[in-house]
Protein 1
Amino acid sequence: MGDLVVTGGTVTVDRDVLISGDLLVISGEVLIDGNVNGDIKSTSGTLTLNGDAHRSIDCRGGKLIINGQVSGDATLACNQIEIGSKASFEKAVRYWNDKGSAEFHGSVKNGTAIFDPSLEIESGRWHYLGFASLLMIWYMGTALLFIVLVNYLFGRTFRNAANNIKNSSLKSLGLVRCRKNNCT
C-alpha cells in the first residue's frame, strides 16, 4: 500500500499491513499494528502505534498511545501521552501534554525527551462566542427596530404602491398599451 490518508472514523492497520508511503490522519481513531515506511502526521482524536514507524512522527491531538518503534524524530503534542513498555524512540523526542511531563521509561535510545511548551495545543476561546452572540442579537434588534420604524412612517405609501403594482402592473413598469388613440 502507498500513502494512506484517513479523515474521520475508526481505522485499524493490521499487523501484516505495510504502508510504504506516508500516513496522514485527520480526526477519528487510528490503531496501527503494522509498519509505516514514510512519515506519520496525525491530528487525530486517538492514535495508537503498536507497529513500527520507520521515519518521523508528528502527532497532535487528544490521546496518543505508543507501544511500537519510532526510527525518526518524534514531535508529540497531545492532551494525553501514554508510552508503553515496548515503546522505542531511536532519535530525539519533543513533546507537550496536559500534565507537563511524560514517563518514557528509558525508551529514548539516541537522544532525549524534551518537554516543549511551544507545542501546546491552543483550545478555542469560547468567551468570544458569547460576545459574538451578543453582537448578533444587537444587530437583529436594530434591524427589527428599523423595519418597524419604516413601516410606521411609510406604511400607507407602501400599501398604495403594492395596490398599484397589483392592479396595474404594466403601467407601473412604464408599459402602456394604445388602441386607436386610447391609451391605457
Protein 2
Amino acid sequence: MPNQSIIVSLIGAVLFVASSAVAHAASSEWFETTGVKMRLIVQPSETSDEIVGALDVHLEDGWKTYWRNPGSSGIPLQLDFSQSQNIASAETDFPTPRLLPTPSGDVVGYEKHVVFPIRFKLGAQSGSATPFFSIESSVLIGICADICIPVQAQFRIDHTQLTSSSFDELSVLRQGRAALPKPFHEAQHIVAAEPAEGRRVLEVITRIPQTASNTELYAEGPPLWYVPPAKLVSRSGGLALFELDLGDVPKDADVTKTSLRFTLVADGQGIEQNFTPAAK
C-alpha cells in the first residue's frame, strides 16, 4: 500500500499546480552583472486592490547583499516605484538575515539566493478582472565580495503580461513570504531588556529553543541610531543573554523611552518583536 505521507504530498502538488493555472503571474527580463542576477515578479492578490510581488536575487558564490540595517557600512536595498502607473504605494519586506563574514568585517545580510517580497496597493480600479497597472522599478542594491559595489537596474511589468504563470514564478513568491520573520511566540521572544549599570550597553534576555545551535539578535531604533549586532554573552536552558552596544546611539537618547524593533534568529528562523527596554 502506498505510504500515506507520499499520497498527501502528491495531492498537495496537484492542488498547487491546479491553483497556479488561474493565479497568473508575470516576470520581468533578468538583469545580470558581475556577482548578481535579478528579476521582478508580480501577481494579483486575492483582494482586488493589491498586487503581490518580489525581487528575486541570485548571488554568485562569494557575493553577499545587505539587510535593511546593514551594519556600520553597506548599502541596503532601495526600490523606487514613483514612475509606475496606478500604483498607490509599495512596501518591501526583508527576509530573516544572517551575520556574514567579509574581508572588511561582518555584515548583516544574505548570500546565494534571496527573495524580497513587495506589496503593491493599486490606485483607481478599472472594473475588469485584470486591473490596469504598469510597474516601473528602479533598483539600487549593494553587493559585496572582495570589494563592495552598488548595482543599479530597471524593471518594467504591466497588466498585459499576466497571461500565464510558471511554477517557478509562483514558487519564488511563496518562498519569499515563507522566509520573512514571524510574530514572536512562546518558544522564541524577547523576555526583558534594560541598560547595564555604568555602561552604554543594553542587556537583553531572550527565550530561544533549547535545541538551537546558533542564535543571533539585531535591534533597530530611530533613523539616527546605529546599533551593531548583539553579542551573545551566555545561554542557560532556553534563555540567552545578549549585550547590545549603545556607543553609537545619540548621547541624549533615552533607550528606556524608545520602542526598539528586535529580530531574534535561532538556526535561521527569525521572529520580529517591538519592545521598550525598562529602566533600572
